What we know:
Layout: H1 2-7, H2 11-30, H3 37-64
Amino acid sequence: MxxxxxxxxxxxxxxxxxxxxDKYKQIMHEHNEPGLDSYFDTLxxxxxxxxxxxxxxxxxxxxxANLKNLGPIESGPHYVSxxx
Length: 84
């Protein structure tokens, strides 16, 4: 997980993993199995630290952007494609 986090700049993906880990922690509590609490706490802290870093990098990128170099603004939808 550390290698993934260190190389990931996908804020949505990191946040999604955080939400999933939190949900699994809740499920474990519902089943009276608190044995993985420290693991989920550590994982959650690592994920939130990386998410904050990614967001800070995005904010800095927007602040430092030169509007003259950005080109025309597109108002249409942005499509995502998967290559297999």
